[in-house]
């Protein structure tokens, strides 16, 4: 009887292992290999641990337009002595273009206060209106460059993007000679605190909001 009980426990353990492994493999496969290449599991786990939602899948809708996230408020951070949660950064304006749903690629340009950037390589995931974008950007702040991983998630609606979430992680600050950037492996999760990121006419459009201020990749202790 004791042997049968132990055998039963072993069978349960084996099936649990197989189920967990299959579930993990399924979750990984729901992001394209290109995304997995630019976002290592260690980095993705840090992003998710900070509360960043990730919409997985391989059938996103058309996302091409220009949007503005405002108020662009801090949700979570792993930066020591960072701004208080709820701190409002400069408006994040971004343009999505050249989307290819066969290759699951997309391009991004953005302006965020004194910071601006262009995507080096961008990939998209999601199903229908729910999407996530993963892009490695070449960023410039006051003439000083950096390479930053940006992730954007949300739901496309007639008004723009609902439930916009944004995360950025520093990949390379090139020594940060002007002390402008957060450090490598540091990052934040930021969200549009009024719930809707509307479509705008251009990245240079002047409208109500916070046009200037601290960018999302700025180092708080250095300001």
The overall strand count is: 12
Helix content bin: 10-25%
Helical segment tally? 3
Q: How confident is the prediction overall: mean pLDDT?
A: 85
Strand content: 35-45%
Span from first to last CA?
Answer: 70 Å
Shape: globular
Task: Let me know the largest β-sheet.
Answer: 12 strands, mixed
Unreliable stretches (pLDDT < 50, length at least 5) are 9-29
Order of helices and strands: HHHEEEEEEEEEEEE
Helix/sheet category: alpha+beta
Gyration radius, in Å? 20 Å
Polypeptide structure, described:
This protein has 223 residues and is of the alpha+beta class. Helix content is 19%, strand content 42%. It has three helices and twelve strands. The protein has helices at residues 2-29, 33-38, 41-49; strands spanning 58-60, 65-69, 72-77, 88-89, 92-100, 105-112, 115-128, 130-141, 144-156, 160-172, 187-192, 196-198. Strands 1, 2, 3, 4, 5, 6, 7, 8, 9, 10, 11 and 12 form a twelve-stranded mixed sheet that branches. Strand 6 (105-112) and strand 7 form a beta hairpin. The longest helix is centred in the first third of the chain and has 28 residues, at 2-29. The protein is globular, with a radius of gyration of 20 Å. The relative contact order is 0.19. Mean pLDDT is 85; it is low at 9-29.
Question: Helices, strands, pairings?
Answer:
Elements: H1 2-29, H2 33-38, H3 41-49, E1 58-60, E2 65-69, E3 72-77, E4 88-89, E5 92-100, E6 105-112, E7 115-128, E8 130-141, E9 144-156, E10 160-172, E11 187-192, E12 196-198
Parallel strand pairs: 1-7
Antiparallel strand pairs: 2-5, 3-4, 3-11, 5-6, 6-7, 7-8, 8-9, 9-10, 10-11, 10-12
